[in-house]
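Hey all, sorry for the wall of text incoming. These are the two entities for the joint prediction.
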Amino acid sequence: MDKQELIDCHERIKPFIHNTPVLISRLIDEMAGAHLFFKCENFQRMGAFKMRGAANAIMQLTDEQKRNGVVTHSSGNFAQALSLSAQSLGVKAYIVMPSSAPQVKKEAVKGYGGILIECESTLAAREHESERIVNKHGATFIHPSNNDHVILGQGTACKELLELHPDIDYVIAPVGGGGLVAGSALSVLYFGNHCKTIGGEPFEVDDAYRSLQSGKIETNTTTNTIADGLKTQLGDRNFPIIQKHVEEIIRVTEEEIVLSMRLIWERLKIVCEPSSAVALATVFKRREKLSNKKVGIIISGGNVDLGRLPF
Amino acid sequence: MDKQELIDCHERIKPFIHNTPVLISRLIDEMAGAHLFFKCENFQRMGAFKMRGAANAIMQLTDEQKRNGVVTHSSGNFAQALSLSAQSLGVKAYIVMPSSAPQVKKEAVKGYGGILIECESTLAAREHESERIVNKHGATFIHPSNNDHVILGQGTACKELLELHPDIDYVIAPVGGGGLVAGSALSVLYFGNHCKTIGGEPFEVDDAYRSLQSGKIETNTTTNTIADGLKTQLGDRNFPIIQKHVEEIIRVTEEEIVLSMRLIWERLKIVCEPSSAVALATVFKRREKLSNKKVGIIISGGNVDLGRLPF
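and here's what came out:
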């Protein structure tokens, strides 16, 4: 995935996404001892950066593939992102989701025009059901994070950030399935100026941290984190990019995530997901390293259940 | 207060305030059956529109007055706004606050450089203490809402909104002490294009509604509302403006306020005070009147205790 592909991707998806605002806070800067630039993908369409990769992946299909629709299995933001992107592009989206998923997530997918397919709550059942739809409808399976077009799309948030602030020293993104941090690392590589990429990850699901240590893709045995978007694991498309272009993955505790989340809500006056707060938490964790640096923070999304806040 | 005074005021305070963003939401528009433009003063410095009026009032003082400082009694946003404005302008701000006020509000005032003076929790005690400071230090008393310079300053938020969207049909502002709605009405009068001003008020503190009915300034006997910024009453400087230039004051229930607040948080992904949600609640209350209209909503502020949310 070279520089031109990233540029082409960005031009391609521009009509379907927002160039989201970048916010700053003098008080958080003082607390962190650094200059922070928050790229607010919580203001993205459907409330998360996932819209970027989903739109790019669908736009790369042939006309015949578009006629047969797309399928993914996700109970999170990618399900909504693929549904809304597909709707915007006149393509059918089949979304495989466990029947145990919250009703509000099912409704959101249907609200964006997605075709909901319910299944058992195991990964095997989800994969089996997705395959069935591929076979039955000829639909194209689109993975939420381990897909080159998705990775490129997710990287465009960081590209926009660097276009606005070309002298940023570090970009920090939360690490779940690896699509966002890999895409960001590519944007940093092509559009940064002595800039480096850092990943943020909860201790409770530190598969990416361990993967960088061991040199192979590790999995999580437990997923006991408030950062519900970060429970997934890396894949063979994004892991090599992360190995090569992400300087470090910094782990944070659940308490640190909640404190940073509260700080973002109280000071920036925005609603963000716990996953987004992981990136800010790493700044406080590595205070010395980032001292006086210009640091871009990717606020990944804002879809959060207000009835279940941690404060 | 003529058009030129409002223009001069805006130019004067520009270096000390943000021109806050205007957000829209397709989904809220669909729900409301109208085109809504949210002027986000929760992103204003110190988190509320009050910064505008406070800055203007201090800048209008003579050099000698500035040397002697300013004083106000408030336990809300105006206390912080006057402190921060005064700090920015190198002026002392004495803030009279009941000793029973939440510690977090006292800390906020001190954090912005205000000099905190604690007193008993009655209006009489607050007024007495303010007067003592006027006499002792020669400080100038600045009322949070019943002061011409404050009213003009508060009106600049609506002026910015109309500069961006000159074809807005209605501007809706929450009504507490009356400074914001009076200032907004002046901006609508001078810069609107067939535009009208509406006030939003909780049934629980409907003094402004009753004042318009009776033709004299009414008070509240109870203040049992979640919209803690709207418990105050009108004054002789802003009431005549409201009488002449506000088309209607629409009252909403506590439940309607909370529903609208949740909608703003969930869909716009921003943190706003309950008082701000009052303005949106009126849109749903007067669905027919506002059908298909372009409606500006002043989101007054975002200083809210996350530990005490109504959802």
